[in-house]
Amino acid sequence: MLYTLTSVLFLVGLFGLLTQRNIIKIIISVSIIESAVNLFLVLVGYRKEGLAPIITRHTSHGKIMELSVDPFPQAMVVTSIVIGLSVMALMIAIALRLYHIYGTYNIDEIKKKQEEEKT
Amino acid sequence: MNNLIPILVAFPLAAGFILALLPGKWLKSADSIALVASSIVFLMAAALYGYEGIYEIGGWSSPVGINLHIDSFGWLMLIAVSFVGLSVMLFSINYMKTYTSRNRYYVLFFMMTAGINGTLLAGDIFNRFVYVELAAIASYVLVGFGCGAKELTAALKYAVLGAAASAVSLFGIAFLYALYGTVDMALLGEVISGLETVYPFSPLHLAAGLAITGFVFKAAAFPLHIWQPDALSAAPAPVSAIVSGALISSTGIYALLRTVNTVFSGALRLGPAVAAIGLFSVAAGTLTASGTKEYKRKISYYSISQVGYILLGFGFAWHLIYSESSAAAVFLAGSGAIFHLLNYAVFTPLIFLKSGAAEYPEKRDRDFPGVSYAGILSLAGVPPFAGFISKAMIIAACFISGTYSGFAAGVIASAAAVYTLISLTRSNIINFRIKRKKARNISGRIPLLMKIPIWSLSALCILLWLLFIPVLRERIIEPARLSIMPQVRAGVEGSLR
């Protein structure tokens, strides 16, 4: 179930990445792909009715080992979200710059204008 | 000595931060700070010669903690990459004066250096992913550093495809964690080699495919190479040099080799797959290059085919190590591939730096290519240059392996090599005759600081032969080769030395 759903989300993103012609939509597709992967990572460590993996006065060490969700993928997800965020900011910045130059977000039109410039 | 390992990652990051925070009136000292910092990185890498060890960050040991480790192959890559970094830094001090805000260029440069060093040292597949991303994000910005329309489109294409490819890679890492509960590469390798049966289409295959896809993208090998010619032909010359020489060879090829060898080689025979990717890159790179007119683009396509030779050599060595008869072929393919990797890290930066030197004072003059003859001839594999012997070794290994697939690979690889040789030398000799006069005028204007890296890299194009005198080979190439081979059949390996 976990594998199927995240793969479907992943493929939706991949489909968008390959078919869309608008830069903003392409960037959104990339973010869908990233969310699919992050979701997968979180779900890998999920345990039904699990505890938060924090040792407090009320939860002993053994109880944590037995009942809590896996904290390790959550640490990975935080890193991966930060990476995704910075790449996203960068892509949007580049897209804005391109918009200032060409006045469009459509890659076909940008290509056409570039070829016109050449000739 | 062990404490140098984390400093190799931390120091470039610190240098980058200091450069970023530099107050306005101190900006002129940025050049010297950057130069000193990258020399220090090079010296630290050199100081680690012959050292093999594991550094446990924060003192936490393997299953819980994160470790950095270095061995002979890692050291060889580290020294090659930091040499490329130092040369590019020497070159870019003058070159980047034609751009605004060059201290930001240095910041990104050091961020990339930290990422590359981390990739070479990481002992944990998730941390390697993070370091690869660190280097990749810096390279996305650096490719678009000129902010012209061409640079921006190339950078956007690179960034979008790169983000998707690394998401695929992360999917693979998550899969491995879900299956085996660890991301430490040595532990994963142990768990995977302990598996009793691996079915033809197991989750392990899927995980391997996903994890490797990202590295194939970064290596610009065949199915995922489309970003590379755009990025390398649009970027400023020092950036193309460091992306092709250091980023592709470390975060792409090295990470791919390490992942396949350390993690998967116990249960999966990925040698033929890697060799096939290599062979397709050789063919695709050479064929597309012949249809391209623009100089930098042509070189980019040829460098794809050189990456192909490297992967072909390694894949072949991994494939043949399991058969008794062909110990000589394993030796030739493995050391040829390592040698070609070193050559690749020398000649592609050289070619791009030289073409940048021709553009130097007016950076937009793109129709005059500054042709580096040493680099071109080494890439084409003309005998006095070191590129000849490494390519010849890989092709010879294909032929003497005694298998049909090896023979076919050898035929394709040697046809591509001969074709590269003819077309590159011919087009450049013609080029040389037409542009000779112009070239003389231009070479007078280049400052000495830009000439030093070009001279030293050109000299290395020939001097790398020295690695093949037995004393140096035993000390440098052999240990590196043995550390990247699957640890099976020690008898076969031992009889050869």
Characterize the structure shown.
- The complex is a heterodimer of chains A (119) and B (497).
- By secondary structure, chain A is an all-alpha fold.
- Chain A has one domain: Helix Hairpins (Orthogonal Bundle).
- Chain A is 76% helix and 0% strand.
- The N and C termini of chain A lie far apart (54 Å).
- The mean pLDDT of chain A is 85.
- With 497 residues, chain B is mainly alpha-helical.
- Chain B has a domain of 229 residues.
- Chain B is 75% helix and 2% strand.
- Chain B has a two-stranded antiparallel ribbon with strand order 1-2.
- In chain B, helix 4 packs parallel to helix 10.
- Chain B is globular and about 65 Å long.
- The C terminus of chain B is likely disordered.
- Chains A and B meet through helix 1, helix 2, helix 4 and helix 5 of A and helix 5 and helix 6 of B.
Descriptive key words:
heterodimer, A: 119 residues, mainly alpha, Helix Hairpins, B: 497 residues, two-stranded antiparallel sheet, 75% helix, globular
Précis, in short:
The complex is a heterodimer of chains A (119) and B (497). Chain A is mostly helical and 119 residues long. Helices cover 76% and strands 0% of the residues of chain A.
Task: Indicate the CATH class of chain A.
Answer: Mainly Alpha
The tally of beta strands of chain A, per DSSP, is 0
Cα radius of gyration of chain B in angstroms: 22 Å
Order of helices and strands of chain B: HHEEHHHHHHHHHHHHHHHHH
Put simply, the count of helices of chain A is: 5
Question: How many β-strand stretches of chain B?
Answer: 2
Classify the helix fraction of chain B into a percent range. over 70%
Largest sheet, strands/sense/barrel of chain B: 2 strands, antiparallel
- Contiguous helical run count of chain B: 19
Based on CA atoms alone, the radius of gyration of chain A comes out at 21 Å
Q: Quick one: overall form of chain A?
A: elongated
Beta strand % of chain A: under 5%
Nearest-integer average pLDDT of chain A = 85
Percent range of helical residues of chain A: over 70%
The CATH architecture of chain A: Orthogonal Bundle
Largest sheet composition of chain A: none
| Proportion of beta-strand residues of chain B | under 5%
Shape of chain B: globular
Q: Return the domain count of chain A.
A: 1
